[in-house]
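Entry 12.
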Amino acid sequence: MRSTRYEAPHVTRAVLTMHWRQQTLVHWRYPPQAVQDLLPPGLLVDLFDEAAWVSLTPLVMRSVRSLRTPLPPPAFPETNLRTYARLPDGRRGLWFFSLDVTNPLMLAARAIGIPYHMAALSVESRGQEVGYYGRRRDGDASYRLRVRGGAPVAEPDPLDDWLTHRWAAFSHRAGRLWLTPVEHEPWPLHRGTVLELSQTLTRSARLPDPGSEPLIHTSPGVGPVRMGLPRLVG
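Predicted 3D structure (tokens):
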């Protein structure tokens, strides 16, 4: 049974809605201090079994709407590099080291410190295999990933839940912390196998290179995803 602490909040007024599709999550264990050193004041690295985690997450965004107004194009790829953080009061969420995207409209989120970058991205599916490619326009950060989806995760274990049940995104702007609430159904998760992986996103984020084999999740996606109004928390 899933722990109630992972239940999604209800977003009463969504400022942005979307669907996330063809998602892969590549998770690495990290030394806690290596991650904490990159977080802003007031935000703490969240740990599972005394380890921090960093995830590379490519996906396809579909049907993005701002206050019910569709944003073109109807679908576009995005890739984020994120970690897991919490406030001193225990509220948990995601901290993004970077978000690479092909849609310039998403750059508006920089206003609250969400680090979007324009990039060349592609997603190609062949049966159970999905290939992702990305190269950032500003700088030399890039990645190439090819995975094969596996069996459904019928009974998520505690780490599966901890990594994929996050209902807030933190950001930092002008010395202040922001929290954006997020609501969606639980991820339909599958196991996955890496067929090819090379990346410089972690190095670009000033993280050490991953020191262990990754844990892989794939998912057909969720939606609609509802994002609430960002609010100051520190």
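Annotation: Residues 11-232 form a domain with the Acetoacetate decarboxylase-like fold (CATH 2.40.400.10). The chain has one domain: 11-232.
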